[in-house]
Amino acid sequence: MSAVAVHHVVTGPEDAPVVVLSNSLGSTTSMWDAQVDELAEHFRVVRYDTRGHGGSPVPQGPYDIDDLADDVVALLDTLGVEKAHVVGLSLGGMTGMRLAARNPERVDRLVVLCTGARLEPSSAWHDRAATVRANGSTAVAEAVVARWYTPEFLEKNPDVKAACEGIVAATPAEGYASCCEVIAEMDLRDDLRGIAAPTLAIAGADDPATPPPHLEAIADSVQDGHLLVVPESAHLANAEQPQTITPAIIAHLKGGAA
C-alpha cells in the first residue's frame, strides 16, 4: 500500500456511524464548515486533507487515484473503522467512487458532489499542473475560485472569495500539481457499474467544471443511484447552498430519500 498518514479532524458522538468527508482539489477540511455541525448531530464526522493539501504530507508525485483511495483505507484502519459512509466533492468524489468500486466492504453509503468519472481533455489538467509547478498555486488561485462559486455569490461575499483564494494559493505546488495529474489520468467509467453502495450524486446547476450531465451519468451507471441538481450553485455547491445540500446528505446517509 502506498498510503500516507493524512491530517484529519474527528467530531461527533463516538458511538455514531462514521462519515468521511473528502475535499476538492485546492481545498482543505474547511470546505465542509457549512456541513460539520449538522452532520455531527447524527454521525461521527471524519474530515481529512487529501495528500499534498492542508496539513497532510506532500509526497513527491506522481500520484494516482488508487493512492488517494489507499490513504482513506489507511485512515479508516488508523481509526479502527471497518465501514463508513463517504461524502466527496470533485477530487474527493473521485476518491470515493474508486474506493466504493475497489473496496466495497469499506463503504456503506456514498455521496458524490460536483464530480465526474472522467474529466477531459486530460491536456488541460497537465497544463495546469505545469503552470503550478513553474509558478506555484497562487498562479491559478483566482481562476479556480471563480469556478467554485457563482458570480453573484462572489460579488456578495468578497470575504469568502479572498479566503478561498488564500487556501488555494497556500496549497503546496507539488501536491496541487500531482493531484491535477491524478485527474488527468483517471477514468472511472468502468468502475461505476461495480458500485453497489447506494449513491447520491449532487450537481450544481451552474457548475462550469463538472456540469450536471457528469452527475447524471454517475447516478445512471451505479447500481443504486439518485440525482439531485441544486439551483444557484457552482462547483463548491455544498458551501453555496448548504440549506439544500446538508439535509439531502443526511437523509441519504440515513437511508431515506434526499
TrEMBL record:
<dbReference type="InterPro" id="IPR000073">
    <property type="entry name" value="AB_hydrolase_1"/>
</dbReference>
<dbReference type="Pfam" id="PF00561">
    <property type="entry name" value="Abhydrolase_1"/>
</dbReference>
<protein>
    <submittedName>
        <fullName>3-oxoadipate enol-lactonase</fullName>
        <ecNumber>3.1.1.24</ecNumber>
    </submittedName>
</protein>
<dbReference type="GO" id="GO:0047570">
    <property type="term" value="F:3-oxoadipate enol-lactonase activity"/>
</dbReference>
<feature type="domain" description="AB hydrolase-1">
    <location>
        <begin position="17"/>
        <end position="240"/>
    </location>
</feature>
<dbReference type="InterPro" id="IPR026968">
    <property type="entry name" value="PcaD/CatD"/>
</dbReference>
<dbReference type="InterPro" id="IPR050266">
    <property type="entry name" value="AB_hydrolase_sf"/>
</dbReference>
<dbReference type="InterPro" id="IPR029058">
    <property type="entry name" value="AB_hydrolase_fold"/>
</dbReference>
<keyword id="KW-0378">Hydrolase</keyword>
